Every structure is written in C-alpha cells, then in structure tokens.
Amino acid sequence: QCFSREFSRFLPPLKLVFVPETFSQVLSSSLGVYRMQMGQLTLEVSSGDITKETCDAIVNSSNANFDLYAGVSKAILDGAGRSVQMASPGYLPRAMIMTTAGQLPSSNIVHIVGQNDPGKIKDLVFGVLKLCEENKFGSVAFPALGTEALLPPHWDDMKNDIVKLFPLTPGSTEYNNVDGKGKVLCSNCLQIERVQNTTLWQSYQLLKKHLEVKNKHTKNEQLLYHGTAATSIDLINHKGFNRSYAGQHGAMYGKGSYFAVNPSYSAQNYAQLDASGHKRMYQARVLVGDYTQGRSGMITPPAKSGNAADLYDSVTDRPNNPSMFVVFNDIQAYPEYLITFT
C-alpha cells in the first residue's frame, strides 16, 4: 500500500484513467525485486546493473550536452562503446535524445538531461514513456533518478570513495575558469585540483537551500579564497574548514574561518611555503548570506534584531565593501578547488 500510494503521488496526470481494481498488490517474487500491475502496464523496482538489462530501451541520465562521463552515465557509455559515446554529444540541445545501445544487450538508449526537481523528474519520466509508446517499445529501464541530486554533474567517478581530488587539465574550460578568477596566479600556478567530497558537498547544499528560505533571496553564495599550510590540506579536504583553527593567523573579526575576496590577499598573507617552496590556496564556495560588521571575540554572528534566534549568517571587515568574510559554521564553506603555486 505504501508503494502504491507513493507511486500514485508522483505519477504525472494522464488522460487514461485507471480504476482502483486495475492496480494489483505489490508482489516480491525474489529478494530485492518488487512488482505491481497497473492494467496492461507492469512496474518493477529492483537493484542491479542497468547495463545488463535486456529491454527495448534503457535511460541514461546525462547533462545538457549529453556527454556526462561519471557515475551511472559513465557505466552506460562505457558499455555501449565508442560509437554511442561519439554520437550523443552531436545532437542539438533538447530534453532527450535516443541512440542505439551499441554493445549493450538493450536495443536503444534514451539520453535525458538529468533534473533535481521532483516535478521536472515527473515530466521527464512521462516524456520517456511517451517516446517509448510512439516507437512501440514494450519495455524501458530507468536508473534511480534524482538520487545524486546534490552532486555536480561535472564531477568525475569517485569509484565509491567519499573524498577524492582530481587534477584539472591545463587549458580546459574548468581550469581556465578557476585560474582566470585568480589572475595573480596565472604565471606561477603549478596545479589546480577539484576537491570532491560527497558528504561535505551535500551538507553545504542543504544549508544553502535553508538560507534561501530563511533570507528570502538566493544571493547567499560567493566564491572566496583561503590560503593555508600544506599540513592542513588533508584535514580540510576531508573535514572542511574547521573553526577550531581560528586565531592561528588572526581573529580580528571573530573566531571563525576567514575567506578573502581577493585571491592575492590570501596568497600573499596566509598561504605558507612548504619545504619545496610551494604554496596552497583554496577557491571555496562560501555561504555569506546576510552579513554585518565583525569584531574581535565573536564566536557567532550577532542577532539581526531583538530576536536572539534570528542571527546574521556571517561577518565581514567592511559591510559596504567587504574584503574578507568570517563564517562560524563548519559546513558553511566548501573547499571546491585546491590551487598549488609558487
């Protein structure tokens, strides 16, 4: 009953109306496999490898360019072979495309632009079913859609690791975007690594959504910089920016984690030389939210008004023209890129 109720709640409205008698009970013919009948439609939910499915079509949740090469999408493209890998990015932007399945046992692959919003996922599912009906397909297999909604689509496959660093290719769009923001490093940047930490990222995204609701606006995030020592890198990559380190390099505006607007400020004042003469600095996503003037001794932002529970989200050196921000929540900043330079 629970399964039937949830499926009915998320099923998009259809012109065809099923009477209650056409819905069967949810049956489990084997461990981990659940099946129910809805008129002539059989719905089966199971765990397994979608690349092993033998059906008319399988669904690949990809990106807007249909070239996502990570997670389930990577497994599907690897299994399908180079002909499908080369074909899918050549299509004009659209909500979904269909290709052959290449070397996979299924006949076709429906590539969709993955969505995070439940409403948009419903529309996508309905669109795929309509496409299958138009092509007179008898079966289609979907992966679990939206289960990695909080992970960026450009992340590389982590192979079940919780934390992993991926060096960016010099000259790539992603590399140039990071290096371009920190132009002070252009001439002496040795390496830029993308920090992929699923737990930190998901916690950060949940807080970001909370601030959007609390503050009633979406301008809560800024890209800022944090210089540090080589000995702190592993801890930051795994645990994020820890407030307990406040005071090691100054706490003029509060006992929190400090981030600079200008990368040169972090690079020159806080990035420490290691034995090889290298320095390290993070480009971080920071939820500054609504901010106010900071002062020495603060351990939390002050209240916005007389309500002690309604606090500012961060503090700064100059509210009208900030050059640095201080946050007091360990999940309020995400160490997105580690820049090594001289």
UniProtKB/TrEMBL annotation:
- In what residue span(s) does the PARP catalytic domain sit? 149-342
Q: Which GO terms describe its biological process?
A: negative regulation of gene expression; protein poly-ADP-ribosylation
Stated EC number for the protein is 2.4.2.-
Gene3D superfamilies named among the record's database cross-references: 3.90.228.10, Leucine Aminopeptidase, subunit E, domain 1
UniProt KW Nucleus keyword: yes
Asked if the record carries the keyword Transferase, the reply is yes
Q: Provide the GO MF annotations for this entry.
A: NAD+ poly-ADP-ribosyltransferase activity; NAD+-protein mono-ADP-ribosyltransferase activity; transcription corepressor activity
Cellular component GO terms held in the UniProt record: cytoplasm; nucleus
Q: Which UniProt keywords apply?
A: Glycosyltransferase, NAD, Nucleus, Transferase
Where is the protein found, in the record's own terms? Nucleus
Taxonomic superkingdom: Eukaryota
Looking at the record, the residues that make up the Macro domain are: 30-183
State the coiled-coil residue ranges. none
Q: Which InterPro entries match?
A: Macro_dom (IPR002589), Macro_dom-like (IPR043472), Mono-ARTD/PARP (IPR052056), Poly(ADP-ribose)pol_cat_dom (IPR012317)
Q: Name the enzyme's class.
A: transferase
Question: Which family, according to the similarity comment?
Answer: Belongs to the ARTD/PARP family.
What is the name attached to this protein's record? Poly [ADP-ribose] polymerase
